[in-house]
Amino acid sequence: MNQNRGVWSLHGLTGYFIAVALLLGILVYLTVNAIAVQQATAQQYYEIKDPLTIKRIGPDLENEKHVVVHGKPVAGDVKHKYQFVNK
Hints:
Helices cover 34% and strands 13% of the residues.
Protein backbone atom coordinates (compact mmCIF):
# COMPACT_ATOMS: atom_id res chain seq x y z
CA MET A 1 0.00 0.00 0.00
CA ASN A 2 1.16 3.56 -0.75
CA GLN A 3 2.22 5.29 2.47
CA ASN A 4 3.57 8.47 0.80
CA ARG A 5 0.73 10.72 1.82
CA GLY A 6 1.45 14.17 3.12
CA VAL A 7 -0.81 16.75 4.67
CA TRP A 8 0.94 19.56 2.78
CA SER A 9 1.02 17.90 -0.64
CA LEU A 10 -0.48 19.85 -3.55
CA HIS A 11 -3.57 17.67 -3.74
CA GLY A 12 -4.25 18.04 -0.03
CA LEU A 13 -4.55 21.11 2.11
CA THR A 14 -2.31 23.24 -0.12
CA GLY A 15 -4.43 22.49 -3.15
CA TYR A 16 -7.52 23.42 -1.19
CA PHE A 17 -6.03 26.76 -0.14
CA ILE A 18 -4.90 27.51 -3.70
CA ALA A 19 -8.38 26.75 -5.04
CA VAL A 20 -10.07 28.89 -2.38
CA ALA A 21 -7.67 31.79 -2.99
CA LEU A 22 -8.24 31.55 -6.74
CA LEU A 23 -12.03 31.53 -6.35
CA LEU A 24 -11.95 34.46 -3.91
CA GLY A 25 -9.71 36.39 -6.32
CA ILE A 26 -12.15 35.82 -9.17
CA LEU A 27 -15.04 36.87 -6.91
CA VAL A 28 -13.26 40.10 -5.92
CA TYR A 29 -12.43 40.90 -9.56
CA LEU A 30 -16.01 40.37 -10.76
CA THR A 31 -17.47 42.31 -7.82
CA VAL A 32 -15.22 45.33 -8.39
CA ASN A 33 -16.06 45.38 -12.10
CA ALA A 34 -19.80 45.01 -11.42
CA ILE A 35 -19.72 47.94 -9.00
CA ALA A 36 -17.81 50.08 -11.52
CA VAL A 37 -20.31 49.31 -14.29
CA GLN A 38 -23.26 49.98 -11.98
CA GLN A 39 -21.85 53.35 -10.92
CA ALA A 40 -21.14 54.37 -14.52
CA THR A 41 -24.59 53.27 -15.69
CA ALA A 42 -26.29 55.10 -12.84
CA GLN A 43 -24.92 58.37 -14.22
CA GLN A 44 -26.66 57.84 -17.57
CA TYR A 45 -30.23 58.66 -18.46
CA TYR A 46 -32.16 58.06 -21.65
CA GLU A 47 -34.99 59.52 -23.62
CA ILE A 48 -37.31 58.06 -26.24
CA LYS A 49 -37.55 59.77 -29.64
CA ASP A 50 -40.80 59.40 -31.64
CA PRO A 51 -42.58 57.02 -29.26
CA LEU A 52 -45.59 56.72 -31.58
CA THR A 53 -43.50 55.12 -34.34
CA ILE A 54 -42.19 52.29 -32.16
CA LYS A 55 -43.35 48.91 -33.48
CA ARG A 56 -44.74 46.44 -31.00
CA ILE A 57 -43.73 43.42 -33.07
CA GLY A 58 -40.61 43.57 -35.19
CA PRO A 59 -37.07 42.29 -35.57
CA ASP A 60 -34.77 42.25 -32.57
CA LEU A 61 -33.01 45.53 -31.82
CA GLU A 62 -35.21 47.37 -34.35
CA ASN A 63 -36.59 49.84 -31.81
CA GLU A 64 -33.18 50.82 -30.44
CA LYS A 65 -32.95 53.70 -32.89
CA HIS A 66 -35.64 55.44 -30.80
CA VAL A 67 -33.49 55.44 -27.65
CA VAL A 68 -31.02 58.25 -26.97
CA VAL A 69 -28.65 57.64 -24.06
CA HIS A 70 -27.04 60.67 -22.43
CA GLY A 71 -23.56 59.51 -21.46
CA LYS A 72 -20.90 57.18 -22.88
CA PRO A 73 -21.07 53.43 -23.53
CA VAL A 74 -20.19 51.38 -20.47
CA ALA A 75 -17.96 48.29 -20.44
CA GLY A 76 -17.54 48.06 -24.21
CA ASP A 77 -21.21 47.74 -25.15
CA VAL A 78 -21.06 47.14 -28.91
CA LYS A 79 -24.14 44.95 -29.39
CA HIS A 80 -26.72 47.68 -28.98
CA LYS A 81 -27.30 50.47 -31.48
CA TYR A 82 -28.30 53.20 -29.06
CA GLN A 83 -27.41 56.76 -29.91
CA PHE A 84 -25.00 58.04 -27.29
CA VAL A 85 -24.88 61.78 -26.63
CA ASN A 86 -22.32 63.30 -24.26
CA LYS A 87 -23.81 65.32 -21.45
